[in-house]
Amino acid sequence: MFNTTDVIETIDMIEKEHLDIRTVTMGISLLPCIRGSARQTAEAVYGRVTTLAEKLVPTAEQLSREYGIPIVNKRVSVTPVSLITAAFPEESPLVARALDRAAAALGVDFLGGYSALVHKATADYEKKFLSTIPEALATTQKLCSSVNVGSTRSGINMDAVKRVGELVKETAERTPDGLGCAKFVAFCNAVEDNPFMAGAFHGTGEADCVINVGVSGPGVVQHALSFAPEADLTEAAELIKRTAFKITRAGQLVAKEAARRLGVPFGVVDLSLAPTPARGDSVAHILEELGLERVGGHGTTAALAMLNDAVKKGGVMASSRVGGLSGAFMIHAVQANALTLEKLEAMTCVCSVGLDMIAIPGDTPASTISAILADEAAIGMINGKTTAVRVIPAPGKKVGDTVNFGGLLGRAPVMPVHTGSAEKFISRGGILPAPIHSFKN
Amino acid sequence: MKAVVTVTGTDRKGIIAQVSAFLCEKNINILDISQTILGDQFAMIMIVDVSECEEDLASVAAAAAEMGKDIGMSVRVQHEDIFNAMHTV
């Protein structure tokens, strides 16, 4: 049984330290929606999503009130749409708009899964599907899109990497301030049960319908550390582990109860300490609490490695099923005044899922965007972990400007990129071969 | 089903009486109370049984928060499971 101190601690975590459930995401398989035409398929998709997720938002809101803990986002992820529209890929935007209408009708924040998995090769129908992504993002509000360009087992599809650079540019030009790019992410080693946007999709190995949950509580960890300013790093890691356990238990409770009330299986708790930009919390503050004057300086990568590992160790114990990205820390580019793209890239080697919400100058060539993605994908491929790139080449913006997407997407200062060209390297195409340690069979 | 009621704010007379009256009106039984004063800050934690209450917990929580505003205190009603989950293994 809990005691008075425990009650006060939980209330302080929620009210003062921004502990919240970052997202309750319902994954829905769209495979039963495939019909003979794009129009019929779009109708079936709308019907299935609005039926299965009908009670998602009210259930999450009810749980939030009963437990007294905020649930910031309610989301839906679906089967990669390229698989649903393989017979008529050019008409995929019809399905995109049906999904967007469904998201609006349900009142969810985002719906993810306008996606293609092309890590080994890009099939003909996938080439056509990829070309529809800018239109899909330009004609929808809540839809998110992703592409998996590589994996540890298959290598990196450099033709797809090249194409993604072009698609990001085109999307930026077709949406105000490049907003569409904030809803598009390219992965290496994408996971099938990620509840976070923009990269959530519902993998084909998943159940018909499932509930995945992500928690957020960097403020709680920072607060716990603030009481131990003299602790050595072993003790600090232990403290983070204990705190992560408590945070994840809250996520596990909400996930299991939401799944029970919605009558669908509980999927996973994603063990990420993802900050919620709207609530103003940040992983950077934890690293500064550990003794770094500014995140981005020397020592940042080591501190982040320890933090990430401790969160996983605490979280694994707290949840019966762990999955998603687990270990991803979105260091938002909001802190970019102290961070460079190079340091962010180094940090992604030890934990972060990748370069997330990075605004770059609007005149950045497509090949440079592809090269940024290739670098991140290589880190993911070699280290056997998920990495991702979500960059926004904001049209007309230069280094020093800021793009503000408001609300859940937050804002991002425009960061400088190297001006040396990668054009020749990217235009070579082909497959970057899988690493030797991928041959485990 | 049990819930945890927490009341915090500046101390004054009649807080327990007002909160208890609210709970009684909702047909909620108080099982345990602990209360302290830190400086001029009042803090009370109650374990209550809500199984005979006809309203759902979410609306009781909303009503309690409103009642709290009227008496100038923060009043929260939360399902006990959130505390069990976070503080017991």
Describe the protein in words.
The complex is a heterodimer of chains A (441) and B (89). With 441 residues, chain A is an alpha/beta fold. Chain A is built from 15 helices and 14 strands. Chain A is 42% helix and 18% strand. In chain A, helix 9 runs antiparallel to helix 10 (233-262). The relative contact order of chain A is 0.13. By secondary structure, chain B is of the alpha+beta class. A four-stranded antiparallel beta sheet of chain B has the order 2-3-1-4, sandwiched between helices. Chain B is globular and about 30 Å long. The model of chain B has no long low-confidence stretch (mean pLDDT 94). Classes of the chains: A alpha/beta (441), B alpha+beta (89). Chain A binds chain B through residues 1-4, 6-11, 62, 65-69, 246, 249-250, 252-253, 257, and chain B through 4, 6, 34, 43, 45, 56-58, 61-62, 76-79, 81-88.
Instruction: State the distance separating the first and last CA atoms of chain B.
Output: 20 Å
What is the CATH topology descriptor of chain B?
Alpha-Beta Plaits
In sequence order, what are the helices and strands of chain B, one letter per element?
A: EHEEHEH
Q: Give the CATH superfamily of chain B.
A: ACT domain
Quaternary arrangement of the chains shown? Answer: heterodimer
Biggest interface, residues from each chain: A-B, 22 and 22 residues
Roughly how much helix do the residues of chain B carry, as a percent range?
Answer: 25-40%
Mean pLDDT of chain A: 92
Structural class of chain B: alpha+beta
- The helix fraction of chain A, in percent, is 40-55%
Please report which band the strand proportion of chain B falls in: under 5%, 5-15%, 15-25%, 25-35%, 35-45% or over 45%.
35-45%
Specify the CATH class of chain B: Alpha Beta
Spatial extent as radius of gyration of chain A:
21 Å
Total DSSP E strands of chain A: 14
